[in-house]
Specification:
Helices cover 15% and strands 30% of the residues. With 806 residues, the protein is an alpha/beta fold.
Length: 806
């Protein structure tokens, strides 16, 4: 039956629907066949079995039972006879007839209404896209079936090869969409509509189409075998060109705003490669300002170009593109200098990238470039910005003089920063935040206005073999739950702390050399935690390590020496475990514990201090067990001012003053300690002190104080003003001594004989009379020694100003 005959039949049927039960005669082509329209379908009275229910298009058909096929109120089917028939009959097998007009009507009716949808769908699967659109105009049922998603998916993938529909989101913006994330009922057909204007570079298809014109008559797509032929064609200008799977070698010059897109299954860019061994692979001229190249991998070399004053990035690399760029000058852009994203690659060597409004080099969304021996400087924001799972290798670059950090790493990014010079930044050197990672190694980081490396907000990098020095702020700053493995770095000569750890951070510092700082070596404060293991921490103007305000680090197997304000200072509620450390040659106490702090010191060696070994005062606590404390200039352990530590199984020996001194209303628990060979005695207790003692061995100590008193010497002779022997001390009212002055018993008897004197208490002091600070000259000493005052306790340590500066 011809298309016009079917159309006429459908038009007459529609008329019947409009005028219910109206009898009419179809065109002469169908002779005298009469069609009655009933509520439930079409009924042909003269043809048994032609009474059929009209079902919605594209519903799967089912066979009806005999009961369903009968008329209401009858036990048997009416066979479509009679005016009241409005039910469906099971079609009987038709006898073979010769071709006639009536048969053509039956065929049209069968094709339109009775043939199963699956069969129609199978027939439509042999049509191409244009024929499919035409057949969709025949009737509503064909329109519905021809819009089948799988039908268009198969057609789409035979043309474009993509695994997902590609949408044109806007000028130069193409993206794959997930099927469940689009509002279109048929995303494959919608993508077909958006992309159909394109021409295709698909080797072999041009000949295939030309040799089979009938097969491809339902398709209006132009194919070329090479990119050169596509660019030379009349359809080229401002066109959309799809480049299918393959490796295309050559150089391509783009003169107009053409769009070139890779087309392939799987990872598109990996399967579409544009390659040239020298010079540029693709060159865009002035007329191609809005041209677009995407979803391909570029393999080419770009050398000695001037790229400047661009509105957007100077260089964009995405979708696995892998260019080689050497000795280019990329500068003064109003955006990023080089922007690698969406799995972009590339090798960038010896480029000068500077004065761009945002970062000099940005890496995001899985991009993984290699950047070697470039100079990235004077960025108005930062030097290198790696974010959103960015990667990359940055090796032997000079990164300097940027307004913000030299390197930013954030949001799960994991680049490698190796052997770079990162210096003179107006903020920090390397800034890792927002769960950033990264390998930071063998870099020279110096002269930055803020921390050389800053780690915060759950970031967890590896920082090793770097030199971090001469910063105007601190060396490494870990805060806001920062983490990280920081090992074998040299951190020195920074203005503030070498390493700060604060606000819930838990880094691991291992085998670093942290030295010669102008404040503290390692500073834990405000609940800073972490581990400090096997480090050398020395020669700081303040303490080697400070712990305060709830911080609770583990400090193990470190060497801490040369601190001008002591080795370790724990104060203001600080905690911590210090074990197996060597703490020696510090200008003040090896360990200070004060102001309600409560650390644990275990198996440490604390020796050769120029002051005391361990000094605990102002309500300090702590557990000291199994430590060796020896050869310190003052008391091995000094406990003062309401403090109450616990000392167990320590060995305190060879001290130049007393072994343990307890004074100023302090107390302590001493169990099973060995205290021996100390110059001023083993255990010296001030007036009113009553410690808890159990199982201690105190032996072979040299009571130099009693020997001096017995020998009639001034006690200053054995102490000078650096030691504080414990004995009775007095004041002289006649000489107007103050509360800060003390006079030993022999000077009271000799130098202040017949004066009005007062016994104060048994405590630690040095003699002001022998020091020459009183009005009369000591008769038991030679020339007086200049001194300003007497201190009953060791000098208080200097607390770091890092927190105030921060």
């Amino acid at each position: 039956m011809s298309y016009s005959t079917v159309r006429m039949t459908r038009q007459n049927v529609r008329k019947t629907k409009k005028k219910n039960l109206k009898r009419f005669v179809l065109p002469p082509l169908v002779n005298d066949t009469v069609v009655n329209y009933q509520d439930n379908g079409f009924c042909s009275p003269g043809r048994p079995g032609m009474c059929t229910t009209h079902q919605p298009p594209y519903d799967l058909r089912r066979k009806l039972s005999l009961q369903e096929s009968g008329c209401p109120g009858s036990s048997s089917g009416c066979g479509g006879r009679g005016p009241g028939c409005n039910q469906v009959m099971i079609p009987r097998k038709r006898p073979k007839r010769s071709c006639s007009s009536a048969d053509e009507v039956d065929a049209a009716h069968y094709l339109l209404y009775e043939i199963p949808d699956e069969l129609v769908l199978n027939i439509f699967s042999y049509l191409l896209e244009q024929d499919l659109c035409r057949v969709a105009q025949v009737c509503k049922r064909f329109h519905t079936i021809s819009n089948d998603t799988e039908l268009w998916k198969n057609l789409y993938q035979s043309v474009y090869e993509y695994d997902l529909p590609l949408y044109n989101m806007g000028p130069c913006k193409y993206a794959f969409v997930q099927l469940d994330e689009t509002e279109n009922e048929n995303p494959w057909k919608e993508s077909f509509r958006q992309l159909y204007r394109g021409i295709h570079v698909r080797p072999g298809y041009q000949e295939l189409v030309e040799n089979n014109p009938e097969r491809y008559s339902g398709r209006n797509i132009i194919y070329f075998d090479t990119i050169e032929h596509a660019l030379e064609s009349e359809e080229y200008e401002n066109s959309l060109i799809f480049i299918h799977c393959g490796v295309y070698k050559g150089d391509y010059v783009i003169y107009s705003n053409v769009t070139l897109i890779g087309a392939a299954p799987g990872n598109v860019a990996e399967n579409v490669i544009l390659e040239r061994e020298c010079e540029s692979t693709v060159m865009f001229t002035k007329g191609a300002r809005e041209a677009f190249l995407g979803f391909v991998t570029l393999k080419g070399i770009y050398e000695e170009n001037e790229i400047s004053h661009n509105a957007l990035a100077g260089v964009w690399v995405k979708n696995h593109a892998n260019p080689i760029m050497r000795r280019n000058h990329i500068h003064h852009g109003r955006d990023v200098g080089v922007f690698t994203f969406d799995n972009g690659l590339g090798y960038f060597e010896a480029n000068d990238i500077h004065n761009n409004r945002i970062a000099g080099f940005e890496v995001k969304a899985g991009a993984n470039p290699t950047v070697v021996r470039c100079e990235i400087h004077h960025g108005q924001t930062g030097g290198i910005y790696v974010h959103e799972n960015g990667r990359g290798q940055f090796i032997e670059n000079k990164i300097h003089s940027n307004n913000f950090a030299g390197v930013w790493i954030t949001s799960h990014s994991n680049p490698t920063i190796r052997r770079n010079e990162i210096y003179n930044g107006l903020q920090g050197g390397v800034y890792i935040f927002g769960e950033g990672r990264g390998l930071i190694e063998h870099n020279n980081i110096h002269g930055n206005a803020l921390a050389g490396i800053q780690i915060r907000t759950n970031s967890d990098p590896i920082v090793r073999y770097n030199k971090i020095h001469h910063g105007q702020h601190g060396g490494i700053y870990v805060h806001e739950k920062g983490q990280g493995l920081i090992e074998e770095n040299e951190v020195y000569a920074n203005t503030l702390a070498g390493v700060w750890i604060t606000t819930g951070s838990t880094p691991v510092l291992r085998r670093n050399r942290i030295h010669s700082g102008k404040q503290v070596g390692v500073y834990f404060y405000d609940n800073g935690h972490g581990r400090l293991e096997d480090n050398d921490i020395y020669n700081h103007l303040y303490s080697g390590v400070q712990i305060r305000t709830g911080s609770n680090p583990i400090i193990r197997r470190n060497k801490i020496w040369g601190g001008q304000n002591g080795g370790v200072l724990v104060y203001n509620g600080g905690l911590g475990i210090l074990e197996q450390n060597e703490i020696f040659d510090n200008a003040m106490a090896g360990v200070w514990i004060k102001t309600d702090s409560n650390p644990t010191l275990r198996k440490n060696k604390i020796y050769d201090g120029r002051d005391g070994g361990v000094c605990i005062f102002n309500g300090g606590k702590g557990i000291l067990e199994d430590n060796d404390i020896f050869r310190n200039a003052q008391a091995g352990v000094l406990i003062s001012t309401q403090s109450h530590p616990v000392l167990k199984r320590n060995r305190i020996f060879d001290g130049l003053a007393a072994g343990v001194e307890i004074t100023n209303n302090a107390t302590a628990t001493l169990e099973y300690n060995q205290i021996f060979n100390n110059r001023f005695g083993g255990l010296c207790l001030a007036s009113g002190v009553q410690p808890i003692l159990k199982g201690n061995k105190i032996f072979d100590n040299h009571n130099a104080v009693e020997k001096a008193v017995t020998g009639g010497q001034c006690l200053y002779k054995i102490s000078s003003y650096t030691s504080f022997p414990m004995h009775d001390f007095y004041r002289c009212r006649t000489c107007n001594t103050t509360e800060r002055n003390a006079i030993c018993v022999n000077c009271i008897k000799t130098c202040h004989a017949r004066h009005d004197v007062e016994f104060i208490r048994h405590d630690r002091f040095f003699c002001d009379c022998g020091a020459g600070t009183l009005s009369n000259q000591c008769q038991l000493q030679g020339e007086p020694t200049q001194d300003t005052d007497t201190l009953y306790d060791s000098a208080a340590p200097m607390e770091s100003h890092t927190l105030m500066v921060n």
